[in-house]
Design a protein that fits this description.
- The complex is a heterodimer of chains A (468) and B (167).
- By secondary structure, chain A is mainly alpha-helical.
- Helix content of chain A is 72%, strand content 0%.
- In chain A, helix 1 runs antiparallel to helix 15, helix 7 packs across helix 8 and helix 9 crosses helix 10.
- The relative contact order of chain A is 0.17.
- Chain B contains five helices and four strands.
- In chain B, strands 2-3-1-4 form a four-stranded antiparallel β-sheet, with helices on one face.
- The model of chain B has no long low-confidence stretch (mean pLDDT 86).
- Chain B folds into two domains: 69 residues, 2-Layer Sandwich (Alpha-Beta Plaits); 62 residues, no CATH class.
- Classes of the chains: A mainly alpha (468), B alpha+beta (167).
Chain lengths: 468, 167
């Protein structure tokens, strides 16, 4: 029952268990390469300026520092929030969906995807925290009891669901990530000395790979996975309800929840691929992140891209079919040929057309093209959120109220700051934490030895063939 | 506690030894492996009650979240929102999320508690390479009589253990 095989070898190069430990821990046991310091420096500067200067500026002077105005009340903050949350879905989508569906090829990539989730959700969490303008009043959104007005929080509001959904999602993802790392922390502790040993031993919580421990470990992970899987769908459906519960043309659509969930998985998978290409090239891990891995993800991205494409078409069709002039204006006039045609068409190109190149095997096997296409998808998904947020508000029911939206320098730097935060987090992760789940890789390596005939079996087999 | 330990670095040999040890009902205390070997867990009938407990926690969580929502929205402050019923259809969203949150936290707490995992804990057993590529069979020596000890040692030798030690 454990020996079924569809995908062939997931780890190349006849690795022994010891080889796997050495290969994966090489990135943290050797000195950091130059590119790491350069990348870390760039992201750290971005983070320091964005979060160290422009976020305090927003808090000190207020939301007036942003490009939001009376007509376009939501701007880059919500765009970036939804974008980061979408990327944050990769870890769960990748790690947990594939865990629950018993897809063994997840092993090389799941740890990085989970790390990404945690940092992306942290980056996303910044925006709701600062967009209220007076963050010090934030505790009023938590149901700590009837507040000063004698009211409970409104449990009917999608915005409140968001608070619960995202904190639950962050908690669950972080716990899932951490528990999966316990055995690997023990491995690092065993191989290191001094302070590092103390830190990692403490992180491993005294893990010993007993049979009973492994059973509990596996059961806990599958349960967390099973619970987090519907949570992913719930979280992004709720984010979409923030929009679709509004009566604005372009927002008031029943397709939004599935559309958002699929979009999130789309951008998340793309971000994982982008990162894995870098990790594979920089740390020479071709044996672990094989061409077959990229092939498998590229197939999923193609499929999801088709869903995205059909969703865009359905939106256009419904706008026409509804006969609602406001709806028709947003889609036909504004998106396809109006003021916002450029972001709309770029979104279509990046999200719906370019990933179709993955139908060709040559493209699925070309790292550079994979890298470029997935970067394109990330840009496309950002543009999609821009198209959802800005054009419907900028030009809604009353032409007299139409107003243009332009982000300010503060908007831009806060966004760059979160990119810096994400980059710094990911770089620290690949430097200090085993970036692939070693215990799971060893499980894969074990399966390979089972699949391959031993030398004696091979000779016997050859003899049978020759006799025949 | 004094133990007899055998060290392997090949899971096939380890499984062979496990088969034989189970056959003679040797007092195997634990097998420590650097990764999960499902066949081994099956062989020794290792089970956990975490799935059952998680279901139990989920049920409790669902009930308590419902109680909290019902109290705040129906009993304590039945706000009239356009004449809509207070016991509203929006409950399931928060019921689901609350249940997940409670179940996740309690299940993980149970895992930590059952396995006695906490920060700064010294591992209860240490052997160089046990988290890398060594698999270790621990036998409780106090439960070994002379005959059994001989048989166990023979099994270890036959299956090619790297090392057999008494610690």
């Amino acid at each position: 029952m454990y020996k079924k095989e569809v995908r062939g070898e997931l780890i190349l190069g006849n690795k022994t268990y010891g080889d796997i430990t050495n290969d994966i821990l090489r990135s943290q046991e050797t000195k950091a390469p130059l590119w790491w310091w350069i990348a870390f420096g760039i992201f750290f500067v971005l983070m320091s300026i964005g979060l160290g200067y422009y976020v305090p500026l927003t808090i000190a002077k207020g939301i007036g520092m942003w490009g939001n105005n009376n007509q376009v009340v939501w701007g880059w903050a919500i765009i970036n929030f939804v974008w980061w949350i979408g990327i944050g879905h990769a870890g769960t989508a990748f790690s947990i969906f594939l865990l629950v569906f018993r897809q063994k090829w997840r092993t090389s990539i799941n740890r990085a995807a989970e790390a990404m989730t945690v940092f992306a959700v942290l980056a996303a969490g910044l925006f709701p925290a600062i967009h209220v303008g007076r963050p010090w009043d934030e505790f009023f959104i938590f149901p700590y009891g009837p507040n000063s007005r004698g009211l409970w929080v409104n449990f009917n509001s999608p915005l409140l669901w968001d608070v619960f959904a995202i904190t639950t999602y962050l908690t669950t993802s972080a716990i899932f990530w951490y528990i999966g790392m316990l055995p690997d922390f023990a491995t690092v502790a065993e191989r290191s000395k001094g302070l590092k040993k103390k830190i990692f031993r403490s992180l491993s919580l005294g893990w010993v790979g007993k049979m009973s421990s492994w059973r509990k470990f596996e059961d806990t992970l599958v349960i967390l996975g099973g619970l987090a899987m519907p949570l992913v769908i719930a979280v992004h459906s709720i984010v979409s309800t923030d929009f679709s519960a509004g009566v604005l043309p372009g927002w008031h659509e029943t397709i939004f929840p599935p559309f958002f969930v699929v979009g999130a998985i789309f951008s998340g998978f793309s971000m994982v691929v982008t990162l894995m290409v870098v990790i594979r090239l920089m740390f020479k891990l071709e044996d672990y992140v094989t061409d077959d891995h990229f092939d498998a993800i590229a197939r999923i991205i193609t499929f999801v891209s088709l869903i995205m494409g059909s969703a865009y078409l359905i939106e256009l069709f419904i706008a026409w079919y509804s006969g609602n002039t406001f709806e028709q204006y947003v889609f036909d006039e504004n998106y396809l040929k109006g003021h916002y045609a450029a972001p709309y068409w770029w979104m279509l190109i990046f999200n719906a057309f370019l990933p179709q190149l993955f139908w060709f095997k040559k493209v699925r096997r070309n790292l550079l093209l994979i890298f470029l296409i997935t970067i394109g998808v990330n840009i496309g998904m950002w543009l999609e959120r821009y198209n959802i947020v800005v054009p419907p508000m900028a030009e809604d029911f009353l032409p007299a109220g139409w107003f243009k939206y332009a982000p300010t320098i503060v908007d831009k730097w806060v966004y760059l700051g979160t990119i810096g935060l994400f980059g710094v987090g990911v770089l620290l992760f690949i430097r200090f934490i085993p970036m692939m789940a070693m215990n799971e890789l060893k499980q894969q390596a074990k399966r390979h030895t089972e699949l391959k005939p031993s030398a004696g079996e091979y000779i016997a087999y050859k003899k049978i063939i020759e006799d025949e | 506690m004094s133990r007899l330990i055998a060290v392997y670095n090949d899971d096939k040999k380890l499984m062979e030894a496990a088969d034989k040890l189970v056959e003679i009902h040797a007092p195997v205390e634990e097998v420590i492996t650097p990764f999960v070997i499902e066949e081994l867990l099956h062989k020794f009938h290792v089970k956990s009650n975490i799935p059952l407990l998680a279901f139990f926690y989920g049920t409790i969580g669902l009930i308590s979240v419902f109680a909290a929502l019902y109290y705040t929205f129906v009993i304590d402050y039945p706000l009239n929102i356009g004449g809509k019923p207070n016991l509203s259809l929006t409950f399931p969203v928060l019921l689901f999320i609350g249940t997940v949150l409670i179940t996740v936290l309690t299940t993980v707490a149970t895992f930590f508690h059952q396995d006695r995992l906490y920060p700064w804990k010294k591992p209860e057993f240490e052997y160089p390479g046990m988290n890398d590529d060594k698999m270790i069979v621990l036998i409780d020596k106090s439960k070994l009589n002379d005959k059994m000890k001989q048989m166990v040692q023979q099994i270890f030798e036959e299956t090619g253990a790297l090392k057999v030690e008494e610690v």
